[in-house]
Amino acid sequence: xxxxxxxxxxxxxxxxxxxxxxxxxxxxxxxxxxxxxxxxxxxxxxxxxxxxxxxxxxxxxxxxxxxxxxxxxxxxxxxxxxxxxxxxxxxxxxxxxxxxxxxxxxxxxxxxxxxxxxxxxxxxxxxxxxxxxxxxxxxxxxxxxxxxxxxxxxxxxxxxxxxxxxxxxxxxxxxxxxxxxxxxxxxxxxxxxxxxxxxxxxxxxxxxxxxxxxxxxxxxxxxxxxxxxxxxxxxxxxxxxxxxxxxxxxxxxxxxxxxxxxxxxxxxxxxxxxxxxxxxxxxxxxxxxxxxxxxxxxxxxxxxxxxxxxxxxxxxxxxxxxxxxxxxxxxxxxxxxxxxxxxxxxxxxxxxxxxxxxxxxxxxxxxxxxxxxxxxxxxxxxxxxxxxxxxxxxxxxxxxxxxxxxxxxxxxxxxxxxxxxxxxxxxxxxxxxxxxx
Length: 437
Known about the structure:
This protein has 437 residues and is α+β, with helices and mostly antiparallel strands. Helices cover 31% and strands 21% of the residues. The strands form five sheets. The chain has a nine-stranded mixed sheet. A hairpin with a 5-residue loop joins strand 8 and strand 9.
């Protein structure tokens, strides 16, 4: 008798998951005290299948850790250096009564170096309406707030952004509707591509045997250029208007990003279009990532997203009703601060590419997502980048920055970022673009 549904699947070097699947045999279920798993049918899954009955573990969580790491090592022994193992769906595992988190999610020192909460009045914010104002006094005050937020925190809340409230409601609606589907309906609705920028629905791919998993399910697709996803099954067909709504939102968010970039050019006393010139409307890229954070039985033992900066120029983030999960670190303080979340604002985060373009005059925001015991949380992040073939050049260095960057190709930097992040931290990722002095 099968008592729990505890799925995970295995993806090989390049080909992704095969359609045919095999069920782990009943002897594994009895040995592990309630396990029910699916693996993709290929040479690697055959090895996992043959090892299944040999695994002895006290519970399913421990069994998953043994199984995944054992297969990873087997893959490395066979010369498969890019073996990906993904949990089928963390949301589904939690739905079926997970009482404690698997060891592969456990991350030490989450509380260190300390945490606190910020109030809205103490968190940087800007009004786009005032940035567009004709009165010099209004503009000057807002430009100063914009510059300070980008220099000190690498992020700020944006009000009066011009995105219709009805469209934001529609975005939240289609996202909630998708994650309310059963796992079977989700699979019918959208594909998964671990080897193509981790596109589609599922979990982030595993890079190493000792990697600690993040407590999140994700869905990723490219909203611009629109041809980016031709031939890929990455847009959910259920809800049927998902793509239409998300592409509308992406264009509205692009307008917000462009206005922030223009404002920063002015606030930093740079020539007009010094940043915007890299963002061709036809070729610039907008990647959508939707994060689902299920309730976590041990929130002090894992993270929804590890500490990181974004490999974008700007990121635009909205959350659903439940907030309190995003934390940021001020550039001069070794304390994680919980970001306050208003109902009428969007969060704009400075990414690594803009730090490079500004030659360190603004900083990419260091942030992470924590888990919560009784609440699920959903967020939608849009990552706004120049085309991957664009070479970006830093502005002239000034006395406000203690670093100096060099020209880099956007695609080269992003590739480097995903190779080393998040294990090696922000400074290691940005070292790729630092000038030798």
